[in-house]
Amino acid sequence: MPTLQEYPAYARLQGSLLGASESLLSWSDGRELLDLYGGHCVNALGAGDLGLGRALERQWQQLSFATNLVDHPGRAPFYEAWQKLMPEGDWQVFASNSGAEANENLLKMALAATGRSRVVCFEGGFHGRTAAAAAVSDGANGFPLTPFDVLRLPWGTTAGIDSSVGAVILEPIQSLGGVVEPPAGFLEELRALCDATGAWLIFDEVQTGPGRLGTPWASQHYGVIPDAFSSAKGCAGGFPLGLSFAQSERAASVPAGLCGSTFGGAPLALAAATHVAQRVAQPEFLDHVSKLGRAFHGLVGTGPVVGVRGVGLLIGLELAPGLSAKEARDALLEQGILTATCWNPQVLRISPPLTLAGSAVGQLAQALCHLPYPSPAGS
After folding, report:
1. Were 310 and a residue from 15, 209, 315, 368 both cysteine, which residue would form a disulfide, CB within 3.0 to 4.6 Å?
2. What is the pTM of this model?
3. Could you give the residue range(s) of every CATH 3.40.640.10 domain in the chain?
């Protein structure tokens, strides 16, 4: 008899996740794990957040779905809530379903508005797995051709950004690349070059926002405002949503009808995103993220941790030689803590729910002290 099996795309951890509440995961072996992964920056408010659940339930009962051919009453509160998080300026937003779509829409808009066909991206960057998003991501993109001309530069350099370039896209902090922050002056130089050449400066904030850095967006943390930026993952607290933001002055040059989406901007997704934005806008919420981020930075010298990189709750723990991030992740999992790896084999990635309790840092510190790693020479 024919069978249906999953295509083996993922190298999954042993065991399975049976349930979750806030930052605790119920594992198939009966243990409760501390979640320092957050579903890859998705569970911004933690698992099973009651307020988010009530918002989705109310919306489901009122209006579960609406085609984009009609308006619906969920849009007005969405705009109102997100306006409070926006960088300085006038903005427009288009809703889709994922970060890759959000980035593709911005690239499409930038190239259409400028009439150009060249995009600058950076080594170590990741922007998604669909055709255009993969074209500007580092590594093999899975497609035989790119949909436009791509100039991939070393991180922190700007050579080659001229009037042939329609868009420059980057993660303000490269997450999968190893939680790599921008060198001093790099974002300011990109802003000046894009102003001079007319290219769009696009920030991929799928993982850095909203709220993950202790500010609504990386642009507010670094003081550099792009022409456009994307959001996804945590922006609806676990409900699929991608958002493409563009400054109104730039968006005015984009042909109408260029973008479209069946499910983008549907009532349930906007209800979830409205609730997330309302929570992130609370000063105490962002203060908590900043405080917890500083606590994670205090782990330098704990066990094998020789350095800490990142901002807020997008953290990379630099490990001493002799212990890889994969080995550390697996050993921490045995101690009841879920973390993540990245492309840098010596960096362990931390991206927990933004509502994580402060006691989690101490729990991780204790576990790190029990990791096996070679002692420093001479100790």
Report:
1. 315
2. 0.97
3. 63-280
For 35-78, the pLDDT digits (tens) are: 999 999 999 999 999 999 999 999 999 999 999 999 999 999 99
Instruction: Record the tokens describing residue 170, joined without a space.
Output: 């980057």
Tell me the pLDDT tens digit for each residue of 207-264. Answer: 999 999 999 999 999 999 999 999 999 999 999 999 999 999 999 999 989 999 999 9
CATH 3.90.1150.10 location in the chain:
17-48+283-368
Tokens describing residue 74: 């969920």
Tokens describing residue 92: 């427009």
CATH class, domain 17-48+283-368, is alpha beta
SS3 118: strand
Rounded Cα–Cα distance for residues 152 and 281 (Å): 36
Residue 97, phi-psi category: left (phi > 0), alpha (psi -120 to 50), beta (remainder): alpha
CATH T-level topology, domain 63-280: Aspartate Aminotransferase; domain 2 (3.40.640)
Q: What is the DSSP string of 306-319?
A: EEEEEETTEEEEEE
